[in-house]
Design a protein that fits this description.
This protein has helices at 3-12, 102-107, and strands at residues 30-31, 46-52, 61-62, 66-73, 76-83, 89-96, 121-123, 126-130, 135-140, 146-151, 170-172, 175-179, 187-191, 197-201, 212-216, 219-225, 229-233, 240-245, 258-260, 264-268, 275-283, 286-295, 306-308, 311-315, 324-328, 334-338, 344-349, 352-357, 361-368, 371-379, 391-393, 396-400, 404-409. The protein is mainly β and 411 residues long. The chain has one domain: YVTN repeat-like/Quinoprotein amine dehydrogenase (Methylamine Dehydrogenase, Chain H, 7 Propeller), CATH 2.130.10.10.
């Protein structure tokens, strides 16, 4: 292999091309630097490929060469590996997600079907994923072969959520950490090597939010939004460190927390809820939470919240309009609202932000306390609802809806 091709291979599969887990390198949908052009061609960025993909909301993870995601086929959850340059299937592994008994039938929401929404995570030569019916599986990344599996609901008695298991697992040391729900095992950790239970802790019902690792004065904590509260546990033992009430009438806590300077945790829900700032006071090895502010004008349904400096930006709304809203972290004051986009997700690259909304609109913008500046925008070949957050690998952007996956070459 020539030096040129060796260099190209290293560049294509290096850290800048890796998006190994939900939310990217730091689970916050932010990349520290980028060199995206502010102006796109009139027809939008160059489309590299487009392919059909089964129903699902799972986002794409990649090592820069292979893409991994989940979709539905019949009653199965299908985990797939795709060639990043062409979109062609490398392998598929199907797991039966059929509802097995009357109790499960009562819990599962028949309106929204059985489309998987959890995003897998890459660790070395393995891929870890959770099916719609809560089966955690470890697969060989090269072949899709099952190495081990754990039934989070049927074996461990986790909380069955009407929309299926939607939480995206978190890697920590040699563990897979994820919410399960129930008495004594609200959060659980499994060894990556063999799937054995490492720890379980807390009593709380599971919701649809994914765990986030934070550092409170040198102490690592895993924080997850559960059905009626925000729960924090020790990632080494599962011991509950603190909890704080946060619920809504429809029991739809979906969005992850946002960790902010000043030991502030932001959490938001839609419908009759709003956005809550929780301040963490850490003294003598103990964390005490207290409410800093609560604002009903910011109600994030299921998109992500983007923290930039002293402000957080997100689509606020459930049914009807969901204007992009800017909130000051320290006070909860609304700086502005803008209706340029429908319900949207955000991905920050350096000083610019990629926006994709549920109607397939794709844009490059700047978000500041003064307002939103649209630099370029186009219409992606996606149909409503395009609710899956985007994935960026190098300068290739991957977008999906419930039927299609498309790859763009960003200028």
């Amino acid at each position: 292999m020539s030096f040129f091709w060796c260099a190209f291979f290293l560049l294509a599969s290096g850290p800048q091309s890796e998006w190994l887990q939900w939310g990217g390198p730091n689970r916050d949908f932010q990349l520290p630097a980028g060199n995206l052009k502010a102006e796109w061609p009139a027809a939008g960025p160059r489309q590299l490929w487009k392919r059909p993909l089964g129903d699902g909301y799972s986002s794409v993870v990649t090592d820069g060469r292979t893409l991994y995601t989940l979709f539905k086929r019949g009653s199965d959850t299908v985990i797939t590996a795709l060639d990043a340059t062409t979109g062609k299937t490398i392998w598929e592994s199907a797991f039966d997600s059929a509802i097995a008994n009357s109790h499960e039938k009562e819990e599962i929401d028949p309106v929204h079907g059985t489309a998987p929404a959890s995003t897998p995570v890459i660790s070395g030569d393995r891929l870890f994923a959770v099916t719609f019916m809560g089966r955690l599986v470890a697969l060989d990344r090269a072949t899709g072969r099952t190495i081990w599996s754990q039934e989070l609901w049927r074996k461990h008695g986790g909380t069955i959520v009407g929309y299926g298991y939607t939480n995206s697992p978190l890697l920590y040391k040699d563990l897979i950490v994820l919410p399960v729900g129930g008495e004594g095992h609200a959060m659980m950790a499994f060894h990556q090597s063999d799937g054995a239970v490492a720890w379980q802790g807390g009593t709380s019902d599971n919701a649809m939010s994914s765990p986030v690792m934070i550092d409170v004065e040198g102490e690592k904590q895993v924080v997850t939004v559960m059905l009626k509260e925000v729960l924090a546990v020790n990632p080494d033992s599962g011991k509950v460190l603190w909890r704080f009430p946060h619920a809504n009438k429809t029991e739809t806590n979906v969005t992850d927390i946002v960790w902010c300077p000043g030991n502030i945790v932001l959490v938001s829900s839609a419908y009759d809820s709003g956005t809550r700032a929780i301040h963490l006071d850490h003294k003598n090895g103990k964390t005490t939470p207290s409410e800093l502010w609560f604002n009903k004008r910011m109600r994030v349904h299921h998109g992500n919240m983007m923290r930039i400096g002293e402000y957080v930006y997100a689509s606020s709304g459930d049914f009807g309009p969901a204007p992009v809203t800017a909130v000051k972290i320290s006070t909860g004051d609304i700086a502005w609202q803008n209706r340029s986009f429908a319900k949207a997700n955000f991905l920050r690259v350096g000083g610019q932000v990629i926006v994709n909304d549920e109607e397939g609109k794709l844009a490059l913008v700047e978000l500041t306390p003064e307002g939103i500046k649209i630099l370029s925008q186009t219409q992606a070949p996606l149909s409503n609802p395009a609710w899956t957050p985007p994935t960026l690998s190098g300068k290739t952007l991957f977008l999906r809806d419930r039927a299609t996956l498309v790859a763009y070459d960003l200028p």
